[in-house]
Design goal:
Elements: H1 15-24, E1 29-33, H2 39-51, H3 68-74, E2 82-88, E3 93-99, E4 105-114, H4 116-122, E5 138-142, H5 154-163, E6 181-188, E7 193-205, H6 210-216, H7 235-240, E8 267-269, E9 284-291, E10 295-304, E11 314-317, H8 324-374, H9 408-416
């Protein structure tokens, strides 16, 4: 009898368990649209879900009757830490970043945006095969002013809000092969906006021209695996042609003869093995960022405490400025509301406990009443008297002394009055 083959699940060992462990404490998000939005905003929502993978609900489907409150109620039960809600206003599209479950809530106006398909159509280099989205992107914050007394107070909070969207980066424990994408968030001080960019990291041989690389890696270009040099008189014409000289077709692009990365500032020595052909540890490679989109230019409008439906004080507003007196009055009003909300919650809890106690006392009283009714005068024995009396075999039926004994005629009449037995006849 042949032995049963046992499958060895190698894909669950080592890397898979480490990846699950690393993603256990990672922030997770819902990216949704609510209200009536067009096809462009819907596509922007799908592109943003792609950016936030794998720590987001990529296949989340919204219905028209779903409200933002529904996702806020469901999110904490699923371990969701953030909600990114896109909507369309009469002025411009807007984005709200909600930190569950205590806030704060950041409201942005989307000044300009470009979809993934728009960015890819304008560049020739950007190619994505999908494996880059198996790991979360790296976050890069640029052009934000350092903390100082003159720094606007909302900018540090803005930086922390973006940092909380992505897993923390630890250079000591991160695997080099997991660094596949970069999200760049830069602050434009002149315009007062935040630019959002998404890139894919490309690692190529350093110091090799594009023509030489085409010859060395010819298998990845045509399906036949052979580089087409039919228009060249000699392979030297293809390899040694100077930059800017016209080719056999009459022109040459400026990028066809350049190296993969221009200078030594782009070259690094790999500390570990990296994805791709011949990207081994210790080899010198050129690193390049290829933008894949989407792009967004965001303007911060408002920062509020709490979450939508339970908003607190307004911490920052782009267009409304309040004096210190007005801010203090608003803070006192919010504190009074919070105190009233706390008192109502405590009162509700006391009412619930009181009703539970009353219900329990009523059940105990009913049980005690049932025992008293069914008891037998303290003996502890339960009586089975149903009101009809109990038959005693030893008890004699006493006859009334004044009652005369029945006569013989009465006996005969009683015998005559006995009903006759019914006889059943079988019919044919």
């Amino acid at each position: 009898m042949a032995r049963k083959k046992r499958k060895n699940r190698t894909h669950l060992k080592g890397g898979g368990q480490a990846q699950e462990k690393s993603q256990a404490g990672s922030p997770k998000s819902f990216i949704i649209k609510h209200g009536q939005v067009g096809s462009s905003i819907s596509q922007l929502v799908r592109d943003m879900r792609k950016v936030m993978e794998p720590n987001t609900a990529s296949r989340l489907k919204e219905r028209n009757r779903n409200k933002l409150k529904d996702f806020m109620t469901l999110g904490p039960a699923l371990g969701v830490s953030h909600i990114l809600a896109f909507t369309l206003t009469p002025v411009a599209p807007s984005l709200r970043i909600v930190k569950l479950s205590d806030g704060p809530t950041l409201s942005f106006r989307i000044e300009r945006y470009s979809l993934v398909k728009d960015v890819i159509s304008t560049t020739r280099r950007a190619k994505s095969i999908g494996l880059e989205y198996l790991t979360p992107p790296l976050l890069v914050l640029a052009s934000f002013p350092p903390p100082s007394p003159t720094t606007p107070p909302h900018l540090p909070l803005l930086m922390k809000s973006f940092q909380s969207l992505f897993p923390p980066l630890s250079p000591q424990t991160i695997s080099l092969s997991s660094a596949r994408r970069v999200v760049l968030i830069s602050y434009n001080a002149d315009r007062g906006t935040v630019d959002f960019r998404h890139y894919i990291i490309k690692v190529k041989p350093y110091g090799v021209s594009r023509r030489v690389r085409k010859v060395l890696e010819a298998a990845s270009y045509p399906s036949t695996g052979i580089l087409d040099l039919g228009k060249e008189k000699d392979v030297a014409d293809f390899l040694l042609r100077k930059r800017g000289e016209p080719g056999p077709d009459g022109y040459e692009s400026a990028s066809s003869a350049e190296s993969v990365a221009g200078d030594d500032g782009d070259a690094v020595d790999l500390a570990e093995d990296y994805v791709g052909r011949n990207n081994k540890k210790g080899q010198r490679r050129a690193v390049r960022l290829d933008e894949v989109g989407p792009r967004m230019e965001l303007r911060l409008i408002k920062i509020t405490e709490g979450v939508p439906g339970k908003e607190g004080a307004v911490m920052y507003h782009e267009f409304i400025k309040k004096s210190k007196k007005e801010a203090a009055a608003q803070k006192a009003e919010q504190a009074a509301k919070a105190k009233l909300r706390k008192e109502r919650r405590e009162e509700q809890e006391r009412n619930v406990q009181r009703k539970k106690a009353e219900q329990k006392g009523g059940e105990d009283a009913e049980k005690e009443g049932d025992v008293d009714v069914e008891g037998d005068g303290g003996d502890g024995e339960v009586s089975s008297d149903d009101g009809l009396g109990e038959w005693d075999d030893e008890e004699d039926i006493s006859e009334d002394e004044d009652e005369e004994p029945p006569s013989e005629s009465e006996d005969e009449s009683s015998e005559d009055e006995r009903p006759a037995k019914k006889v059943k006849l079988r019919g044919r």
